[in-house]
Amino acid sequence: MMPRPVGGVIHFYDASWPSYMANGKRFIFSGEGPYNPSGNGPKNYKEYEDQYRKNFIFIMDGRNNELKPALINGNHSINPHVSNDDTILFISRTNEMDGLENAPEILELFLYRKGKIKRLTTLHAYIKWTRISRDGRFIIFTKRNSERDRDFSYWLMKSDGTGLREIKIPVDGLKQGSN
Questions:
Q1: Tell me, what DSSP letter sits at residue 83?
Q2: What is the largest CA-CA distance in the chain?
Q3: Cys-Cys crosslink for 161: which of 120, 136, 165, 177, Cβ 3.0 to 4.6 Å?
Q4: In a domain, 131, yes or no
Q5: pLDDT given for residue 60 in this prediction
Q6: Is the model more confident about 61 or about 154?
Q7: pTM
Q8: Residue 72 is part of a domain; what is its CATH number?
Q9: SS3 for 18-87, per residue?
Q10: pLDDT at 132
């Protein structure tokens, strides 16, 4: 069922938390299934996918609400996060590019910096949440073995793709504080 337009506003089936770009005048977010009943560009989900595939990372200016894709990568790019130099960390489905079309959904990390996209991980896993440090040097993310798996682990790496390591949280060692 398509969302109903309210005053010509663009609607989505699902959306991520927005992040401001470095200039503070535009913001970036991912939103699945844009529905634009009154503006320029695609009017519904089908028209959007025909034009941009399943790339759902958008930049808006917050004034004119001009919606445009921030980047095109593969087939299902979501959950962007931005550093102070406008480097964009995002997740993208890699089943097709890895030749694993029939495998459970695989989501890996990518970095968009100075007009170039670099794949950072090949974990063949389901990466869900990501953040890049303000200075753009470090990345933290959560990884699951599959979309249905409820157990996840925390991972840390440098934004050049090196230094990948799991962060072990000593849950058994947690103590309730009196502070």
A1: -
A2: 57
A3: 120
A4: yes
A5: 77
A6: 154
A7: 0.77
A8: 2.120.10.30
A9: CEECCCCCCEEEEEECCECCCCCCCCCHHHHHHHHCCECEEEECCCCCCCEECCCCCCCEEEEEECCCCC
A10: 94
